[in-house]
Amino acid sequence: QVQLVESGGGLVQSGGSLRLSCAASGSIFGTYVMSWTRQAPGKGLEWVSGIYSDGRIYYADSMKGRFTIFRDNAKNTVYLQMNSLKPDDTAVYYCAAIGRDWGQGTQVTVSS
Fold it and tell me: Which residues pair with 18 in a beta bridge?
């Protein structure tokens, strides 16, 4: 079991930026496939981005060019840099170690 703790959420105006962090427990973080998923109010889960241990990165089409995922294996942390935020990006953002565990989520609210 992996413990994941997200941080960095908050309230930001449309067009602004936020950087989410997800700190993981364990000594083999570098082998994990990590992802970010979000859930907007009243909607289902929406996959945002994923990063493999070999550095391959994938984004949902609506996030390409605005969001950047990266990881620091020395710090057991994965990040999601979000730029040009829109009100539609308002959601609870969850990180996950694929096949292992999910974090508790961090709220992102984008005001218009």
Answer: 82
d(CA 15, CA 31): 34
| DSSP designation for 29 | G
Read off the pLDDT of residues 89-99 as tens digits, 9 standing for 90 and up. Answer: 999 999 999 98
The 3 state secondary structure assigned to 56-95 is CEEECHHHCCCEEEEEEHHHCEEEEEECCCCHHHCEEEEE
- And the tokens for 70? 């990266």
Q: Which of 62, 60, 94, 59 lies closest to 78 in space, CA to CA?
A: 94
Q: What is the pLDDT of residues 42-62, one digit of tens each?
A: 999 999 999 999 999 999 998
